Amino acid sequence: MKVLFIEEYLPQEMLGIMWLSRAIKDAGHETKALFIPDTQWLDKLKEYNPDVVCYSVTTGIHTFLVDVNRKVKEVMPNVYSIFGGPHATFTPELVEEVGVDAICRGEGEYAIVELLERMRQGQPFQDIQNFWFKDPKTGEIIKNPQRPLVQDLDSLGFPDREVIYDAGAVYRDADRKVFVSQRGCPMPCSFCFHHAWKKKVYDVKNSEYVRKRSVSHLIQEIQQVKAKYNLKFVHFVDDIFNLRNDWMEEFCERYPKEVGLPFDVILMANMTTERHIELLAKAGCVYARIALEAASDYVRNAVFRKHTTRKQLTDASFWIRKHGIRLGTLNMLGGPGGTIEDELDTLRLNIECKADHPLVSIMQPYPQFDIENITRQMGYAISAYDEFPDNFRRTSSIQYDNKREIENLHKWFPIAVRYPWVMPIVPKAIKIKWMARPYLIMYMLFAEYLVAEQSKLYAKAQGLSGFRYSTPVDFTYRVITKGVMRVYDTIMINMFKRFFAPRRQQLAISLQMGDERVVAHMD
What we know:
The structure is a single chain. By secondary structure, the chain is α/β, with parallel strands linked by helices. It has 2 domains: about 1-135, Rossmann fold; about 175-465, Aldolase class I (TIM Barrel), CATH 3.20.20.70. The protein is about 45% helix and about 15% strand. The protein contains 20 helices and 15 strands. The protein has helices at about 15-25, 40-50, 60-75, 85-90, 110-120, 160-165, 170-175, 195-200, 205-210, 215-230, 245-260, 275-285, 295-305, 310-320, 340-355, 370-375, 405-420, 425-430, 435-460, 470-495, and strands at about 1-10, 30-35, 50-55, 80-85, 100-105, 130-135, 140-145, 175-180, 180-185, 210, 235, 265, 285-295, 325-335, 355-360. The strands form 3 sheets. A 7-stranded mixed beta sheet has the order 2-1-3-4-5-6-7, sandwiched between helices. A 6-stranded parallel beta sheet has the order 8-11-12-13-14-15, with helices on both faces. Helix 17 (about 405-420) runs parallel beside helix 19 and helix 19 packs across helix 20 (about 470-495). The protein starts with a strand and ends in a 27-residue tail after the last helix.
């Protein structure tokens, strides 16, 4: 059986597809990926002639990929279409859309292999766990229960990077590549998918939900990638890298000897000790992110359910900077129940922590997340799912009276953190509605500057130096190159509109690989 993954370009390689591809190939089937926009995508689709087409969708981009699938079905009516990912898992009613044959909820490795095996053998498959199917004759929706979570992550093998790298050279050639050591998170954060995945999809406890790969398995994967592909920097996307002390001790002792590449991590403040930071610094960590989220104790703990104290946040930030690691902070504006003064206090907290790289999002109440119920219970109206923004750094899906102020503050946020002397003008500046577009441009340019700063850090960690790696030069290069790419992107989209309703697609380019604006929070 031949499986084709159709996806948008994203600013980092997709681990989910890689693991699915590994399971599919190990079972004796074929896989291929196709990234859009691509003016030749239909020709490539026909040439590969897949039996099954798969899409991974998040809320906001799901409508576009449903449109893509409709076009696929026009060209290849007999191909079987499967939608998975967060949006499909939490709103499986997506299977009712025209052209959608099945929805895979939750982990898909074992489920997709069982489906392909039955298809190959010509056997019935509409009772396979993790799937919702649409009967092709009656239109009836068949809803199957979930199978148990994969407990031994090492047994899944290494993610199949070839499927992504063959389709997108930009991923293969990037210096920084993505790795993950765990699945699941024990925290009950109301705005994150983990609590909903754990309770509403699988109904399990943390002991079953939170799983960790062995240090040996993770290091072997990094060594394999390093030997086969360009790899100069390791980007870990674990929600909480310092989840287990024993694992951390072993990793930090072995990693510098067996891998020896600089890396970055995300840490949980209420689990972080100075010992953790000392270990990470000695192991080669050059950048660590802490989730501050909100300065208001009420918003951070009662609404967001972070279970952190302000002192834990400032202590962790202090230790990171003390040991020479670049400090990144994760923040969210627009939490229900907060005020503009609360949002400004979050900015002040970042200044107090002396954040080097303040990352900020606008809170989105995604389907079946507890924050959605909390927001509605507080009396706020929320946009329909099909109207959610595909970029959580542009606008809010919550209909606040002061929505424009929140969005404008978001654009001022990283600048005010790095240059606190502008703070006196910020409360007045964010009230000027007609300045929204200039603020967005200002934000995008400064975000590019922060990425250029970060690139210099990575270059230094790799022993690279010289004029090309200076922050001003890299910043100028990035701005000019992206300006040219935007023109090219516009041309591509105009050609793409022949098939789909207007919707701006971002073409992934090498400059975006590792861009912190897109990995601020796990998807």
